[in-house]
Structures are given as structure tokens and as C-alpha cells.
Amino acid sequence: MKKRFGVSLSEGTTQDLNAVASKLGCNRSAIVEKAVELYLTELKHASEEHTCLGVMIITKKSSNVPIENVYEEFKDVISGYTHYHVRNTCVDVVLTAGSSSRILELRKNLEGCGCLVKYVILH
Ligand SMILES: [Zn+2]
User: Fold this and answer.
1) Torsion angle defined by CA atoms of residues 5, 6, 7 and 8, in that order, rounded to the nearest 10 degrees
2) CA distance 70 to 75
3) Side-chain-side CA neighbours of residue 91 (13 Å)
4) Ligand 1 centroid distance, CA of 40 (Å)
5) What is the pLDDT of residue 63?
6) Can you point out the beta strands (E) in 1-123?
7) How many CB atoms lie within 10 A of CB 3?
């Protein structure tokens, strides 16, 4: 059952929402509901210790960044990784599984090495 309540959005966000809804041919409520679900998942994810499954996409500015040492330190939560070179940029894709706080610590370590890290939650 759906609940209805009023939400105020900025003019810019409203324009973006209208444009995307029109382009995708779906209604605004469906987009807002999915966006709220995703955001709530991220908020809950960061605040509750749990067994986590996800993929880290790591972009390194230089191949001299010694992140293999970080991988070794966090092998308890790294199931495996692959390494790519794309237009003079190193990209690692790391499958993580285990303690969410350890995975968060891994992310902070990688960011501390100057890496750009995007984490995709798979559970
Ligand atoms: Zn998680």
C-alpha cells in the first residue's frame, strides 16, 4: 500500500526529475521512491555493522601508488581483484565480503593513498 505525503524539492531538482521522468517514460513518484530507497540503504549501510558484500571500483592517478600493500593488509575482506589500464589510468575492481567496518576501513585507506573509490553494495 502506498502512502502519500507532500515533499518540497528545489526548482533545479524538480526540473531534473521532470526531465528524467519524461525521457524514461515513467512517473515521478517511481523515481523518487527508488532514489529514497537507495539513499536509505546507503545511510543504513554506513551506520550498522553487518556482513557486507560489495564491489569497490578504484581509480589510481598513478601506477606508483602502492595499494597492493593495502590489499595484503585487508585480505580478510578481499575475495579477489582485477586490474585494468584505461587511457593512462589504472582501474582496480575489488570484490569485498566480510565485516562492514573492515571494508569501510579499507576504503578509507585507499582514499588515503589518493585513490578515487566507488563502492557498490551487492546485498
Ligand atoms: Zn554492506
Assistant:
1) -170
2) 9
3) 10
4) 12
5) 63
6) 51-60, 78-86, 89-99, 116-121
7) 4
Cell 515533499 -> residue: 7
Secondary structure (3-state) at 49: coil
Q: What is the pLDDT of residues 7-31, one digit of tens each?
A: 999 999 999 999 999 999 999 999 9
Distance 37 CA to ligand 1 centre (A): 15
Q: If we measure between CA atoms, which residue out of 79, 35, 42, 87 comes closest to residue 61?
A: 87
107 C-alpha to ligand 1 centroid (Å): 13
For residue range 59-108, what is the model confidence (pLDDT) as tens digits? Answer: 987 667 778 899 999 999 999 999 998 888 889 999 999 999 999 999 99
